[in-house]
């Protein structure tokens, strides 16, 4: 039996958010979900940008991936980036084993607004489904409601659902990701 | 489908290259990477990418601008996005001058790249669609694609080529379904007006007043319902060709108007006082014998001579029976693609039946017959029975019918008509078939008033 492992990167990861992700992932993906403890991402810090290198985090996840893991999703509180972009909400190995999501820009406080837990948790679920979907081989979806639609700003995240459209769900079930 | 589009990311820093490539792959694109300008040019020589992301500063060998210039030499229409960490006005100006489509400073906002890529791909999709449609249109109407091994048709096609770049008016005469519009389009596409509009008008389809406003346009308020000025077909065809089908059916008034256009290359819109000048080549077609119409006073002789500068008489299909198998096979191949049916050939028996058929509807009828047979056929070969409808309809005049009560004279008349149809009007051949000499056959044709 192979599992979809989901864990917070470091002890700081929001516990409620992690529990909600595992619950939703169990409903959305065709493999059983397990919790996993993962190390923090301090090693990937880039002092020049004051952010964390997403690629190095993915490499670490790939190295620590348990043998019985079908896929592994790590979730961090820290702000991630890839060199060409100012930030990423997350990153995944397309049709690979690992994915990472950053919660840093999903909180209302990041945009100078009062805290809203429900909004934050909903965004976390959407991005977690999105990046894990990539690891399952799904590419961006043209359906703006689908979790696999591309989000390059917070409004786009708020517009979509934390679930897959029928077409993406079909691809997931077929396991091809084509 | 994004997967059809290939993107090349060029950067000497592997992490930079791979992270952007991975990000674009998540968007569904097929992405290649190159770690140097030289490698990028080699890859570009093998494939034309939809978008090239090229880093400006690359050590040793080619830098970003040089790489871009070499790629553009291979693919002048390439969409190249220059990426740099050092934004200066000078480098931006140089990059744009040398043909970069965009210039981005890293790190850049994900939204910016995403919008940029989708904008370029949208244009590429439209360009590709346009190219496909143009090719499709030209393929259908090229002189070299008109299928025939009939010497008369070859002469006609040669003439089409020779006159394609002239402005002289062409008159195409031929029965319905012989491909008059196809020849008109082929003339248009072979000449130097090919990139300009080809506008076809069926003169028989519209009432006189409608046809007049259709051809010449109208001014606002010139009649009830004329809410605004509308350009006519002559204006639409400016620089190109107007094809006037069924020209024999136009009214006496329109004949005068047309004559003026042909003489002066100018006309007035309906209800207008301003002269409109156009550069239009006129190709007219008719299924009636215009010369006879002139003799009967139904068609103006001056207009006839203006139209008949270059005359093309298309033979009926029964006059070029040798083309029937070629055409049938051509339609079979094209329709099997269009209908999604795996039908590959026509049996010998079926071909014989097609050869014997009289084809009053000419090539168009043959095309329809092949399509109908393909729709109902279950095998990979079209058999005789698939074309049974041709004989059931009585459309085939292969076997004349002589019901009881018919006079010997009527029988003889019908037999001569059918034989002449089969020989394509060839008297010598028909006289041999009927076992009488030519002069006797001429006498009988005259006696029975058989039209030829």
Structure description:
The complex is a heterodimer of chains A (178) and B (452). Chain A is α/β, with parallel strands linked by helices and 178 residues long. Chain A has helices at 15-28, 54-64, 117-135, 154-159, 166-174; strands spanning 3-8, 33-35, 45-46, 51-53, 69-76, 80-81, 90-92, 98-102. Chain A has one domain: Collagenase (Catalytic Domain) (3-Layer(aba) Sandwich), CATH 3.40.390. Chain A starts with a strand and ends with a helix. By secondary structure, chain B is an alpha/beta fold. Chain B has four domains: 2-135, Response regulator (Rossmann fold, 3-Layer(aba) Sandwich); 153-315, P-loop containing nucleotide triphosphate hydrolases (Rossmann fold); 318-392, Helicase, Ruva Protein, domain 3 (Orthogonal Bundle); 408-447, Orthogonal Bundle (Arc Repressor Mutant, subunit A), CATH 1.10.10. In chain B, the strands form four sheets. Chain B has a five-stranded parallel beta sheet with strand order 2-1-3-4-5, sandwiched between helices. Chain B has a five-stranded parallel beta sheet with strand order 7-8-11-6-12. The mean pLDDT of chain B is 85.
Distance from first to last alpha carbon of chain A: 24 Å
Main β-sheet of chain A: number of strands, strand sense, barrel status?
5 strands, mixed
Form type of chain B: elongated
Would you identify the CATH H-level superfamily of chain A?
A: Collagenase (Catalytic Domain)
Number of helices of chain B: 19
Which properties best describe this structure?
heterodimer; A: 178 residues; alpha/beta; Collagenase (Catalytic Domain); three-stranded mixed sheet; 18% strand; B: 452 residues; Rossmann fold; Helicase, Ruva Protein, domain 3; five-stranded parallel sheet
List the helices and strands and how they pair.
The complex is a heterodimer of chains A (178) and B (452).
Chain A: E1 3-8, H1 15-28, E2 33-35, E3 45-46, E4 51-53, H2 54-64, E5 69-76, E6 80-81, E7 90-92, E8 98-102, H3 117-135, H4 154-159, H5 166-174
Parallel strand pairs in A: 1-2, 1-5, 4-6, 5-8
Antiparallel strand pairs in A: 3-4, 7-8
Helix pairs in contact in A: 1-3
Chain B: E1 6-10, H1 14-26, E2 30-34, H2 37-46, E3 51-55, H3 64-74, E4 79-84, H4 89-97, E5 102-105, H5 110-140, H6 151-163, E6 170-173, H7 180-190, E7 198-202, H8 208-216, H9 233-236, E8 241-245, H10 252-264, E9 266-268, E10 275-277, E11 281-286, H11 290-295, H12 301-307, E12 310-313, H13 323-339, E13 345-346, H14 348-356, H15 362-376, E14 381-382, H16 388-392, H17 408-422, H18 427-434, H19 438-447
Parallel strand pairs in B: 1-2, 1-3, 3-4, 4-5, 6-11, 6-12, 7-8, 8-11, 13-14
Antiparallel strand pairs in B: 9-10
């Amino acid at each position: 039996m192979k599992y979809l492992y989901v864990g917070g990167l470091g002890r700081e990861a929001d516990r409620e958010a992690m529990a909600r992700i595992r619950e939703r992932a169990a409903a959305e993906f065709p493999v059983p979900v397990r919790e996993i403890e993962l190390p923090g991402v301090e090693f990937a810090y880039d002092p020049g940008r004051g952010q964390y290198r997403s690629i190095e985090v993915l490499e670490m996840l790939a190295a620590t991936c348990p043998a019985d893991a079908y896929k592994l999703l790590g979730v961090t509180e820290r702000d991630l980036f890839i060199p060409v972009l100012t930030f990423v909400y997350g990153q995944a190995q397309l049709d690979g084993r690992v994915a990472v999501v950053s919660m840093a820009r999903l909180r209302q406080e990041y945009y100078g607004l009062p805290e809203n837990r429900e909004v934050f948790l909903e965004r976390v679920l959407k991005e977690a489904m999105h990046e894990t979907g990539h690891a399952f081989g799904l590419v961006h979806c043209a359906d703006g409601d689908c979790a696999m639609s591309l989000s390059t700003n917070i409004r786009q995240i708020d517009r979509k659902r934390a679930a897959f459209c029928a077409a993406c769900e079909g691809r997931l079930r077929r396991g091809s990701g084509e | 489908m994004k997967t059809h589009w290939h993107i090349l990311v060029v950067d000497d820093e592997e992490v930079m290259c791979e992270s952007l490539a991975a990000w674009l792959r998540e968007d569904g694109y097929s992405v290649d990477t190159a770690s140097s300008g030289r490698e990028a040019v080699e890859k570009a020589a093998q494939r034309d990418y939809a978008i090239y992301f090229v880093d400006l500063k690359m050590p040793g060998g080619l830098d970003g601008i040089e790489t871009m210039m070499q790629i553009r030499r291979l693919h002048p229409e390439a969409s190249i996005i220059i990426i740099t960490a050092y934004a200066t006005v000078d480098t931006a100006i140089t990059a744009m001058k040398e043909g970069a489509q965009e210039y981005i400073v890293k790190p850049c906002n994900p939204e910016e790249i995403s919008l940029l890529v989708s904008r370029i791909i949208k244009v590429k999709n439209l360009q590709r669609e346009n190219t496909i449609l143009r090719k499709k249109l030209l393929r259908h109407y090229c002189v070299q694609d008109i299928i025939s091994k009939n010497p008369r048709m070859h002469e006609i096609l040669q003439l089409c080529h020779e006159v394609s770049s002239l402005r002289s008016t062409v008159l195409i005469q031929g029965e319905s379904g012989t491909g008059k519009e196809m020849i008109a389009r082929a003339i248009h596409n072979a000449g130097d007006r090919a990139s300009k509009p080809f506008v076809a008008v069926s003169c028989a389809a519209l009432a006189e007043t409608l046809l007049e406003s259709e051809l010449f346009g109208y001014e606002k308020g010139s009649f009830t319902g004329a809410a605004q000025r509308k350009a006519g077909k002559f204006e639409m065809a400016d620089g190109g060709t107007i094809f006037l089908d069924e020209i024999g059916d136009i009214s006496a008034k329109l004949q005068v108007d047309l004559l003026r256009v042909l003489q002066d290359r100018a006309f007035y819109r309906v209800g207008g006082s301003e002269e409109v000048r156009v550069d239009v080549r006129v190709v007219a077609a008719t299924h009636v014998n215009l010369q006879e119409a002139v003799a009967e006073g139904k068609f103006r002789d001056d207009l006839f001579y203006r139209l008949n500068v270059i005359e093309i008489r298309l033979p009926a299909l029964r006059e070029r029976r040798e083309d029937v198998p070629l055409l049938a096979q051509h339609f079979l191949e094209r329709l099997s693609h269009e209908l999604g049916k795996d039908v590959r050939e026509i049996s010998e028996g079926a071909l014989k039946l097609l050869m014997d058929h009289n084809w009053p509807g000419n090539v168009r009828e043959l095309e329809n017959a092949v399509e109908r047979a393909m729709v109902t056929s279950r095998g990979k070969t079209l058999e005789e029975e698939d074309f049974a409808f041709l004989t059931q309809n009585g459309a085939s005049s292969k076997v004349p019918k002589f019901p009881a009560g018919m006079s010997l004279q009527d029988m003889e008349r019908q037999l001569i008509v059918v034989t002449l149809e089969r020989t394509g009007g060839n008297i010598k051949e028909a006289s041999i078939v009927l076992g009488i000499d030519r002069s006797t056959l001429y006498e009988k044709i005259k006696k029975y008033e058989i039209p030829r």
